[in-house]
Design goal:
By secondary structure, the chain is of the alpha/beta class. The protein contains 29 helices and 25 strands. Strand 7, helix 16 and strand 8 form a beta-alpha-beta unit. The two termini are about 45 Å apart.
Length: about 800
């Protein structure tokens, strides 16, 4: 099967905090747990998250430069100065321009709107656009979604005496362009409370300041800004969540005629959502600028006639179909070139040359290819005698830093960690590919990369119901920063598997576990599933949804990953329990404040070549190591607590070392921070070259609460009936609990109760024996030293110099 790294997103939820939010706001526990794991703290934050309101938008005057922008524009309007708003040809740029158009019309300004042409102008404000404005008698330019890097264009505007107001959201150069005002939350000097606005939202802020819109008057602008927010893939948190959530509702209510008609022309059975905007509306708006003129999309957003809007929406729909055909053709040609030349077997970053490809869609194609091969990809085409490339990365890989190593080959270059664009002379193509791949190797990229798949919370099939899935929808809209919740469902069987779709590349099946079953759809996984043995248990990462087909409603799992089930050994939990007791009675250790930036899998790849020792603490990192070894057929030995005689030709993994753990190693990779106090100095003293990898500590305490302990106590008498099998007892408890526990949580909870005199227990050779104390004295569990150690995070000290 395709290599898949299973990773937990965010921290494990604090069960008490999740329970409080669930009780106070009437939200399902699983939904509250995911919200807490994503950083929602307290009832106030939870209310703002689950109940977005325009009243919670920040004042536009908190944006640096807003007062100066307002004064300059008002003065220009008062003096009848010709104003030109300059947007961009993508969805955010078009939406930004539409908002400025509505603002300037409201002010009664003498104005025009200019959208650059992708093929003749290139991106954003440039000297040619300024020159044309000067020739047209324009006295002020207002940019939207661009301008922060337009230093030469701004200098020309200054020379011609054209006032310049820049509104943008991109990170700018060290030397900012000369302007009357710059409004940009991403500026280093900006103290605006939220940095993640898209260009259209910044334009909306400007219009708020100038027009003093009421909340009811702001609804149409919020609808337009919502489309840009989702299309531009900015984080859907803070103000962006308010704009996206309410904007979707305002689109549904028909606040903008153009968007209303565009929804209709899509002819989709899907409900209006962030996903609908991402895959239906935004591509149609973008298609105009990719293939022809972005002005078509702008006219749609500004249309006040249903007939006119319908005609424009139809035109965009036809352009989008043409864009899809171009895109499919490019992707097919690129995959053919990659496979025929074996590029995916030789290169860590793919450079694909398709001279006749359409410049407007090579970026989309690069993203699809990067996803298919789980590595960065650059698609390059010929344009006006030179090569132009668009590159896309995969999560966790800093594409911009890699391509910077090849910057000497480029005549133009820009971007960010996940996407970049460049131009180069034809003769420099091969050199650029070589330099980028050399850099990729230095960054630890593998020739056999693994795709990461994130989950939010562990769940069982029994927890997935119409009610729980409906509750999860309260977290919408979904997108960057707030992805659709993914569940890790372990140890399930798959039955009735069959390939579906025109190309038979998708699959449908049933997931079965403990008497429960749910249908599963797995897009583009049909070939991978054939590699699974018929009755092999698997782990699923999937989002849960309510599916309606031909009038029938059912629950369905949308699989993101299906991997062979590998159980976490009991020895891991036992060693974690021993480490905890050692830590309680020992002096605090430390974990360095500076880490190596290598992803864990890259560290494993490098460490195996070096014959290094790997040290791991948390279950999440431990299981990633086990999966890595299994996928790569890596000979390995696993030790718990202390190191015995390891085979020299094997990778050696040491879980939860105690004290010096009999270690004597030249190089050791610490793959994650310890679950408890820190690394013992005695252990570090045995390693000549320790390497620390940045990773999230495993938060054990999330599963141990007053409720958990009471639940274990209530059912403790069942241990004997289960033959003293601790694993079976845990499985029984998890059928009754909303949050899952593991063997460590069981033992630690028993420790707390034993300390407080509620019971005594022993665990010998896998057999658990529990004896309840008759009429125990009532005590607060938080009077337990062990409980306090479990729920309190002890400060991590910086390594001594």
């Amino acid at each position: 099967m395709h290599t898949m790294i299973i990773r937990q997103r965010g921290e494990r939820a604090d069960a008490d905090a999740a329970r409080e939010i669930s009780n106070q706001l009437g939200i399902a526990g699983i939904t509250a747990s995911i919200a807490v794991s994503r950083g929602i703290k307290g009832i106030d934050e939870a209310e703002k998250f689950f109940m977005p309101d325009l009243v919670n938008l920040h004042s536009p005057y908190l944006l640096e430069g807003m007062q100066q922008a307002k004064a300059a524009i008002n003065q220009a309007v008062k003096n009848n100065v010709k104003i030109r708003a300059v947007g961009d040809y993508d969805c955010d740029g078009v939406c930004s321009a539409a908002i400025l158009h509505k603002m300037l019309a409201k002010l009664g300004a003498d104005f025009s709107v200019y959208l650059p042409d992708r093929f003749t102008d290139g991106y954003g404000l440039n000297p040619q656009i300024v020159q044309k404005a000067y020739e047209d008698g324009v006295g002020m330019i207002i940019t939207a979604d661009n301008g922060i890097s337009a230093v030469s264009a701004a200098a020309l505007a200054e020379k011609y005496g054209i006032s310049l107001v820049i509104t943008d959201h991109h990170i700018g150069p060290e030397e900012l362009p000369p302007a009357d005002a710059i409004v940009n939350p991403a500026l280093e000097s900006s103290e605006y409370p939220f940095k993640g606005l898209c260009g259209a939202s910044v334009a909306m802020k400007l219009s708020q300041a100038l027009c003093d819109w009421s909340f009811s008057e702001l609804r149409e602008l919020v609808a337009i800004a919502a489309v840009a927010t989702i299309a531009d893939v900015v984080p859907l948190e803070g103000e962006n969540r308010i704009i996206a959530s309410l904007g979707i509702e305002y689109i549904r209510q028909g606040e903008n005629i153009g968007l209303q008609q565009l929804v209709k022309v899509c002819k989709s059975q899907s409900a209006l959502s962030s996903s609908f905007i991402s895959f239906q509306l935004a591509p149609r708006i973008n298609a105009a600028g990719r293939l022809e003129s972005a002005g078509i999309a702008l006219s749609l957003l500004l249309s006040e006639s249903e007939d006119r809007a319908k005609a424009l929406a139809t035109a965009l729909d036809e352009l989008n179909l043409k864009r899809q055909q171009e895109e499919d053709s490019i992707i097919e040609a690129a995959i053919s070139a990659i496979e025929q030349n074996g590029l995916h077997k030789q290169h860590r970053i793919l450079f694909v040359l398709l001279e006749e490809a359409h410049e407007g869609v090579i970026g989309i194609a690069a993203g699809r290819i990067a996803e298919k091969y789980s590595r960065p990809c650059a698609v390059v085409c010929e344009s006006s005698g030179i090569y132009k490339g668009s590159a896309r990365s995969v999560p966790g890989i800093d594409l911009y830093s890699i391509l910077q190593r090849a910057a000497s080959c480029f005549t133009a270059f820009g971007g960010h960690p996940q996407a970049a664009g460049f131009s180069l002379e034809k003769e420099s193509f091969a050199e650029a590919a070589i330099k980028a791949n050399e850099a990729a190797e230095e960054f630890g990229l593998s020739l056999n990369p693994s795709a990461s798949c994130f989950y939010d919370i562990e769940a069982s099939l029994s927890q997935i119901s119409f009610k729980s899935v409906s509750e999860l929808e309260k977290m919408a809209p979904f997108g960057l920063g707030n992805p659709k919740p993914s569940l890790l469902i372990e140890n399930v069987s798959l039955r009735n598997k069959k390939a579906i779709g025109k190309m038979k590349n998708h699959a449908s099946m049933e997931a079965v576990s403990d008497g429960h079953s749910i249908s599963v759809i797995a897009y583009n996984m049909a070939s991978e599933l054939t590699e699974l043995a018929p009755h092999m248990p698997v782990d699923l990462i999937a989002s849960a949804e309510i599916n309606t087909f031909r009038g029938e409603t059912s629950l369905q799992l949308d699989a993101k990953a299906i991997v062979s089930h590998i159980s976490c050994p009991d020895d891991y939990y036992n060693s974690l329990h021993k480490l905890f007791h050692y830590s309680v009675d020992s002096q605090p250790g430390f974990y360095p404040s500076e880490y190596d930036s290598l992803p864990l899998e890259n560290a494993l790849s490098l460490g195996i070549k070096q014959g290094a020792l790997f040290i791991v603490y948390g279950k999440e990192a431990f299981m990633r190591c086990i999966r890595y070894f299994a996928h790569n057929n890596t000979p390995h030995s696993i030790y718990y607590g202390e190191l015995a005689n390891a085979a020299s030709d094997n990778a050696v993994l040491l879980a939860n070392p105690i004290g010096s753990a009999s270690v004597n190693a030249n190089t050791a990779y610490f793959l994650d921070p310890p679950c408890f106090y820190g690394i013992d100095e005695g252990l570090l003293g045995c390693i000549r070259n320790p390497v620390f990898i940045e990773s999230m500590p495993y938060r054990i305490q999330a599963s141990i609460t007053r409720t958990t302990i009471a639940h274990i106590y209530k059912h403790a008498k069942l241990v004997d009936a289960l033959g003293g099998n601790a694993g079976e007892f845990v499985r029984f408890l998890n059928t009754k609990l909303e949050s899952k526990i593991d063997l460590f949580s069981l033992y630690a909870s028993l420790d707390v109760m034993a300390e407080l005199g509620f019971l005594s227990y022993s665990s010998m050779e896998g057999k658990l024996k529990v004896s309840l104390v008759d009429s125990p004295e009532q005590k607060n569990i938080y009077s337990s030293k062990i409980m306090l150690e479990l729920i309190g995070d002890r400060a991590i000290e910086t390594a001594p110099q």
